[in-house]
Amino acid sequence: QVQLVESGGGLVQAGGSLRLSCIASGRTFSTYAVAWFRQAPGKEREYVAGLSRTGNYKYYADSVKGRSTISRDNNKNTAFLEINTLKPEDTAVYYCAASSSVITSSRRLAGAYANWGQGTQVTGSS
Questions:
Q1: Residue 97, Cβ neighbours under 10 Å: how many?
Q2: Higher pLDDT residue, 64 or 126?
Q3: Residue 38 in contact with residue 18, Cβ under 8 Å?
Q4: Angle at Cα 126 formed by Cα 8 and Cα 21, nearest 5°?
Q5: Is 49 a residue whose pLDDT tops 90?
Q6: How far is CA 41 from CA 22, 38, 59, in A?
Q7: Confidence class for position 27, pLDDT limits 50, 70, 90
Q8: What does the longest C-alpha to C-alpha distance in the chain come to?
């Protein structure tokens, strides 16, 4: 298992940017694929972005594609999610997730990830 702790959330004006961090501890971080999910009040948890173990393959949900960047630094056991041009509808709790066995076809499913952080609140104000 790997333990994940997110940080970097907060209140951001519409049009602004933020960068979330996810620090991992425990098992070797480089053996885990990483993803970011978010959950808005009253809604299901949804996939935002994903990253392969090496960082060579990146995937984005349509809702953030073109204004978001997912990255990782395996030397620092940290993953990042940067969102630009923030919108009020980006308001949600953002979760970092990791899996040592997720396959490409399942990467958007929350159930494919066994390791989760506690979440960090992002609020986009209009």
A1: 24
A2: 64
A3: no
A4: 10
A5: yes
A6: 22, 10, 24
A7: confident
A8: 40
Average pLDDT across the chain, whole number: 94
Q: What is the pLDDT of residue 125?
A: 86
- Residues facing residue 125 across a β-bridge: 13
Sign of CA dihedral 20, 22, 4, 65: positive
Gap between the Cα atoms of 78 and 22, Å rounded: 5
C-alpha angle with apex 75: 23 to 59, nearest 5 degrees? 65
Per-residue buried b or exposed e for 27-66, using 16+ beta carbons within 10 Å of the residue's own CB: eebeebbbbbbbeeeeeebebbbbbbbeeeeebbbeebee
Closest CA to 41 of 101, 104, 102, 88: 88
Mean pLDDT along residues 104-122: 93
